[in-house]
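Q: Could you write out the predicted structure for this multi-component system? I'm mainly interested in how the pieces pack against one another.
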Amino acid sequence: MEGVKFDLTGKVAIVTGGGKGIGRAIALGLAESGAAVTVAARSQQEIEAVAEEIIKMGGKSIAVVTDLTINEQLENLVQKTLSTFGRVDILVNNAARSFLRSLLDLREDGWDKVFDTNVKAAWLLSRLVVRKMAEQKSGQIINITTVGAEKAEAGMAAYGCSKAALKMLTRCMAREWAAYGIRVNAVGPTLTRTEFSKPIWSNPEIAKLVTSNIPMGRLAEPEEIVGAVLFLASGAANFITGQSIYVDGGSLTL
Ligand SMILES: NC(=O)c1ccc[n+]([C@@H]2O[C@H](COP(=O)([O-])OP(=O)(O)OC[C@H]3O[C@@H](n4cnc5c(N)ncnc54)[C@H](OP(=O)(O)O)[C@@H]3O)[C@@H](O)[C@H]2O)c1
């Protein structure tokens, strides 16, 4: 039965921020499930290394250097994917940035940079990709949010607000694009051991405080975020759209 398949053979995916951390794990996971993957971020060396890793394991991949805040580079990312693989089935809007800064100290341009990357780029890139997905009458978009979209953390206002906006954008896109056969969902991790969160987990006192707010008593590893993405990208999630799945060790139960 079509609806219970997890296999992504023949599918083409774009993963933003795919050079490291959670994005790298997602790119590798999609490739292991059979998808060809375009890996995008600004750091050429990192994305090329991930693409090479995929090719070495027998998969198909390209790396496209992209600054998601520059519109021409978004267009180039989609064009390169289409000219190489001929279609696009899955977009994972994973790239993000953040500053640890109180609302009183946060600069206006800092707020804008966070929103430009975490919300505006996800909207603009999705819109470009959706034109092709609509022709295909199918597509999956997965936005990576965070538990911080649901609960306020001191010093994380711009980031938390941007991810709450991305969660709402997920629902708006799901609503408008269902008519084209496109599903849009979000995956929200709790604190995960990557470079992004290193200032938190590398400080034993802060790490202890943070893990005391995770019922399962530890941080997530990047690979643990992948399953939810694969599920939502696959036929097993055929009738699920506009939803957020939190991969949080129970964080949001507190
Ligand atoms: N780690 C956590 O604790 C945690 C928890 C909850 C949610 N998340 C979410 O998970 C996602 C991945 O986080 P992570 O921890 O894996 O972060 P990471 O290791 O810092 O990776 C972030 C990625 O985003 C890319 N990026 C940032 N700005 C970009 C831009 N303007 N253009 C293109 N690429 C850009 C970076 O690549 P370049 O710098 O090379 O461009 C990098 O590959 C993010 O959406 C984050 O909000 C993370």
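A: Regarding packing and overall arrangement: Helices lie at 21-32, 44-56, 71-85, 108-136, 157-177, 198-201, 204-211, 226-233.
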